[in-house]
Amino acid sequence: MGKLVLGCIADDFTGATDLANNLVRAGMRVVQAIGVPATPLDADVDAVVVALKSRTVAPAEAIAQSLDALRWLQAQGARQVYFKYCSTFDSTPQGNIGPVTEALMDALQCDFTVATPAFPDNKRTVFKGYLFAGDVLLNESGMQNHPLTPMTDANLVRVLQAQCTRKVGLIDHAVVARGVAAITERIAQLKSEGISIAIVDAVSNDDLLRLGPALAKMPLVTAGSGVAIGLPANFGLAPSSQASALPAAGGLRAVVSGSCSLATNRQVLDFIQRGGAALAIDPLRIAAGVDVAGEALAWAEPLVGKQPVLVYSTAEAGAVKSVQGKLGVEEAGAMVERTIAAIARGLVDQGVRQLVVAGGETSGACVQALGIAQMQIGPQIDPGVPWCHARAEAAQGAGVHIALKSGNFGGDDFFTKAFTVLA
Ligand code: ADP
Questions:
Q1: If you placed Cys at 11, which of 32, 55, 115, 213 could pair as Cys (CB 3.0 to 4.6 Å)?
Q2: What is the mean pLDDT of residues 332-348?
Q3: For atom 10 of ligand 1, which residue has the closest CA?
Q4: Considering only CA atoms, which residue is closest to atom 5 of ligand 1?
Q5: Which residues, listed in sequence order, are joined to residue 404 by a DSSP beta bridge?
Q6: What positions does the domain Four-carbon acid sugar kinase N-terminal occupy (predicted)?
Q7: CA 333–ligand 1 middle distance (angstroms)
């Protein structure tokens, strides 16, 4: 192979898909690996995104996982490394964005890198070093109340500096707006001041496209998924439909949903209102020991040969709270995830080869249950959600088309539209 140019390390699963999707749209052929692969790369691609689960683990563990991923990517010949984190800069006062960035800089002997979660397509913009989510500052966006990574300060220079031993500076919008020469000059100036990491302002895709060429020679780039749109051109790659080409789709079609987000609730309702075959599963019956997965598969079997089926635990906030009150938040979540994953596996046994999964954690559980180690990234269904193609142990190593939709992504008609995109 020997063609891999960009090696990416993502700190969570759906974030990895989001990055892969942006790279594909900018012209790269991309594979996403679930964890660090045990074997060499077996695909002809321009970029690999290694999906870790390192966002909220202890910093030392996040560093160990990331360095493991780096070694594998280097062994595959990656010429540049991209550390991907959330576009809301999700981290704790200890990290892990800062510690992982510095460990990667040490390993790559990289004396300067950038850090910017800007992703204007998703309304994440950075101005004067302050991160906005939509029209409000990060710390007014709801992220200040996040259960694991509360973000109480929108000033990213301050936030990142608190996680780093190296000095953190800013490349502000006035510089970015003037283009590559001005950005390069600013980087030289920051370096002369002893600064090694720069937050970069970007409020539009044009800003990110101006930033791209200035990053061409950096061994390490750290960012959300937005910066990805400006990188493929550095390797002579331009957007093309070939980048997202997947093998032809066949087999039966199904959707499983364990997401309870507002968007997913609307998508389930829309699918039912269009006359789709849908079955709700009840967490309390799982807790009572009923074989809910077996029931769902018996329900699906006579239907799935004729039309796409939907099996969902998706419920509105009040119902979810009530279940969580009875079973505990984590116990309810884990139980439903296991059940939906078993249903996904059973559906593949029934011949499903086009599967949509709704829910970030739910997706992780399903991918594991299906025995998928890596996915080729294909065409986008809605922003942030591409179809993928993967060999699945559950299908005796045959190919399955799979779309993994995190909570709030996708339009109301997502569960219908997804299959038309493949057809
Ligand atoms: P999202 O991407 O929308 O956050 P996730 O799959 O990441 O979706 O998370 C949803 C969580 O809620 C999962 O742990 C899932 O098992 C759990 N869950 C799903 N349905 C219910 C329900 N009806 N009651 C309680 N918990 C549920």
A1: 55
A2: 97
A3: 259
A4: 359
A5: 357
A6: 6-230
A7: 6
Q: Could you tell me the pTM of the whole model?
A: 0.89
Q: Which residue is closest in CA terms to ligand 1's atom 15?
A: 333
The reply to whether ligand 1 has any atom less than 6 angstroms from the CB of 407 is yes
Q: Residue 38: which pLDDT band, with cuts at 50, 70 and 90?
A: very high
Residue position matching structure tokens 């995109």 = 421
* Count of C-beta atoms within a 10 Å radius of residue 256: 29
The best mutation among 18, 259, 335, 414 to test binding of ligand 1, ranked by most ligand atoms within 8 Å of the C-beta, falls on 259
Ligand 1 mutation target, pool 13, 336, 406, most atoms within 8 A of CB: 336
At 383 the pLDDT is: 84
Amino acid, single-letter form, for residue 149:
T
Q: Is the CB of 308 under 6 A from ligand 1?
A: no
Rounded to the nearest angstrom, the distance between the alpha carbon of 344 and the centre of ligand 1 is 15
Q: What's the 213 CA to ligand 1 centre distance in angstroms?
A: 41
Band of pLDDT at residue 407, cut at 50, 70 and 90: confident
Q: Is 285 helix (H, G, I), strand (E, B) or coil?
A: helix
Domain residue extents for the chain: 6-240, 246-422
Pairwise CA distance, residues 114 & 116, whole Å: 7
Q: Which helix (H) or strand (E) holds 168?
A: strand 167-171
For ligand 1, the distance from its centroid to the CA atom of residue 346, given in whole angstroms, is: 20
Q: How far is the CA of 362 from the centre of ligand 1 (A)?
A: 7
Atom of ligand 1 at shortest distance to CA of 406?
Answer: 2
Classify the C-alpha dihedral 169-174-175-180 as positive or negative.
Answer: positive
User: What fold does the segment set 6-240 form as a domain?
Assistant: Rossmann fold (3.40.50)
What is the band of 144 on the pLDDT scale with cuts at 50, 70, 90? confident
Residue bearing the CA closest to ligand 1, atom 21: 313
> In terms of Cα–Cα distance, which of 244, 303, 278 is closest to 356?
278
Residue 251, sorted as left (phi over 0), alpha (psi -120 to 50) or beta, turns out to be left
Quote the pLDDT of residue 1: 46
- pLDDT for 80 equals 98
133 bridge partner residues? 124, 136
d(CA 117, CA 224): 4
Averaged pLDDT of the chain: 95
CATH superfamily of 246-422: Four-carbon acid sugar kinase, nucleotide binding domain (3.40.980.20)
* Closest to 389 (Cα-Cα) out of 251, 276, 256, 263: 251
| DSSP code per residue over 21-32 | HHHHHTT--EEE
Q: What is the pLDDT of residue 360?
A: 86
